[in-house]
Design goal:
Layout (H helix, E strand, L loop, with lengths): L6 H4 L10 H10 L3 E5 L4 E3 L7 E7 L2 E6 L5 E7 L20 E4 L3 E7 H5 L9 H26 L4 H16 L3 E3 L4 H8 L3 H13 L3 E4 L2 E4 L1
Antiparallel strand pairs: 1-7, 2-6, 3-7, 4-5, 4-6, 8-10, 9-10
Length: 221
């Protein structure tokens, strides 16, 4: 099977948590999994499209983003390897996508048939119920991360937004030294701040001894 090369990634995902390699391969067949290969800058989905599958990233990185009428961009979320996306749109009558999904680098997505994921199959695969349960947990985790982002956005100043985001990244990596998955422009888009103002604030924080940085590597002091 062409998807067998991604087994090491799949078995570490929340969706297939507790399911063995042989069973995962069986589930991929049951769920009519298809592979989608993307180049950096390719659109996986565009706002207004309807989802008929549950997409799972197995290679690369994706941005969920939105551009306004004048071309100003906001990065809503960053999707890493092993993460689902678009799961909020697979329920009946959930409506079209509100945002674009773009490959931030060369990426591979596995698409699982949405109806087969949320409906127990006629073969009564004993692991299918686990996948449905894991999907619920994944949706809950995604909502938690969105609440975290709202916490960053609720801060009043650029500095406060940076402190909130970098503190959360430090906790996530369990270290004062870490790398973030965003370059300067992407970080500004993610926090909805002006890039120049954000860069100036980072330099001020560095001069005040709060942190050091090099590109997307940070150390909180």
């Amino acid at each position: 099977m062409k998807l067998k090369k991604y087994l090491n990634v799949l078995k570490r995902t929340k969706l297939f948590s507790g399911i063995g390699e042989d069973e995962i391969l069986g589930m991929l067949s049951c769920l009519q999994a298809k592979k989608l290969e993307l180049k950096k800058g390719d659109y996986v989905y565009r706002a207004g499209e309807h989802l008929s599958c549950v997409p799972l990233l197995v290679e690369g990185r994706l941005h969920i983003q939105k551009d306004d009428f004048w071309g100003n961009r906001s990065i809503i979320n960053v999707i890493g390897v092993g993460e689902l996306f678009g799961e909020s749109y697979i329920a009946p009558d959930s409506g079209p996508l509100l945002n674009d999904v773009v490959a931030a680098e060369d990426s591979v997505v596995i698409c699982l048939d949405a109806n087969r994921v949320i409906t127990t199959c006629s073969n009564a695969c004993r692991f299918h119920q686990m996948v449905v349960q894991n999907l619920f947990y994944e949706v809950s985790e995604r909502n938690r991360r969105l609440v975290q982002k709202l916490g960053h956005m609720a801060q009043r100043t650029t500095r406060e937004k940076l402190i909130s985001y970098l503190s959360e990244q430090s906790q996530k990596h369990k270290s004062a030294s870490f790398e973030i998955p965003l370059n300067r422009q992407q970080l500004a888009d993610f926090l909805s701040v002006d890039r120049s103002a954000m860069s100036n604030e980072l330099c001020k924080m560095r001069d005040e001894g709060l942190l050091t940085f090099n590109k997307n590597s940070f150390e909180l002091l």
